[in-house]
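To: structure subgroup
Subject: Chain for Friday's discussion

All,

I'm putting the inputs and outputs inline so they're searchable in the archive.
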Amino acid sequence: MKELEFEIKNVDDALDYAAKEMRLDKSYLDIEVIDKKGMIIKTYICKATVKVTPAEVAFETLETMFNTMDIDANIEMRVRDNKIEYKIETDENPLLIGKGGKTLERIQYYIRNLVNQFYDDHAIVQVDIGGYKANRKKQLEILATKTAKNVARSKVEASLEPMNAYERRIIHTKLADWRDVTTVSKGEGNKRHLVIKPKRR
């Protein structure tokens, strides 16, 4: 997680300085004076560290979000190495997932950014609602296999519908070891999609 060592003349200003430099709320930080310099004009060597658990902050944020929306939600959190997963079940799953998973995608984007503000390196953050992503993964793997078989047989490339980076990665991974086909991404922005091509021999 982020930490910062710095030199400052007034210890009372240390928390404000650290919060600005680390781009974090002051309530998330602890300040420790680790050394002093000078006899007449003193300066202080301080160390700022994160005093909260990022995964817990995100969990509480999700709880607050659903409470504000007056939605009863069961949130399950799993933390393993640098991967954090939130599995959510509510009576409003379709509303929170949105058409084509767009609302869920925005929720995950927000939670991922919230968590990663605490790290120099990025943690992997996944949010799933009502098992949508697990089911979508199965559907995409079936689509990938079926399309790849057709391409391998016909020797004609096939373009898939536009997908987000997460969904494209599922198909890339599923077909990575296939000997007869390869996958490439094409297009920009919302039109970014995968093309499954026959391998030339």
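Points worth raising on Friday:
The chain has a mean pLDDT of 93.
The longest helix spans residues 132-154.

D.
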